[in-house]
Amino acid sequence: MPVYCITGTNRGLGLKFAPQLAQSSDNTIIATTRSLDSDLTELKTCDTGNVASIHSFVKEVAQLLGGSRKIDVLLNSAGVNLGSSQSSLTLGPDELHKQMDINVIGPAKVVELLLDAGLLSSDVRILNMSSGLGSMQRSSEIKPRKCAGYSISKAGLNMLTVHQSEDLKPHLPGAVVIAMDPGWVKTSMGGDGAVLEPHESIGGMLRVLHGLRSEDSGLYYQYNGDRIPW
């Protein structure tokens, strides 16, 4: 009876994860969204760009699980791509700060606060939703470069993954943390030219996630299981 916690389910891939996981009645799914402006009234609010909101969400999860159950799989899928036309020479501070808040600090605090509250299972699987644009090697091969601020924030998320994979060991020896590139998916963020259907990306990511071993912690994967160069 695994418990899944998914951030960023108001749109995009986060929104598509829940229906696939809900196909099994054994799964308990805790899905979060930044706001409830749309018709998503069954989701919990958690703005991962706001630490106070994360604190409030963790308290809600503790009440929901009732002290006897813990999160087995955490999908940190909340993320934003702002100012995608900005280059390293035209970065807007406001856009970059917000991307770092949501794409890096958010996943860091979600893991930290859930751990402090004793809500992560001893062998929790944590997927930090990255991007191929977070790879320095892959980005160096793209000409012209694109999405500078987003790329920088996803590279930061990748480094966070490396640190979390080690820092969690004394607390949760069986924990496995990975960064994942979902591929270029047909979502609002993927935009024109995207090649993957959401169910292909999510199905692949879940296969990788469910097949993780302890030695995989701290690695960087593509949705199909291939390793990605840092």
Automatic annotation (TrEMBL):
Organism name: Chaetomium strumarium
Descriptive protein name: NAD(P)-binding protein
GO molecular function: oxidoreductase activity, acting on the CH-OH group of donors, NAD or NADP as acceptor
Pfam families: adh_short
InterPro entries named among the record's database cross-references: NAD(P)-bd_dom_sf (IPR036291), SDR_enzymes (IPR052184), SDR_fam (IPR002347)
Recorded coiled-coil stretches: none
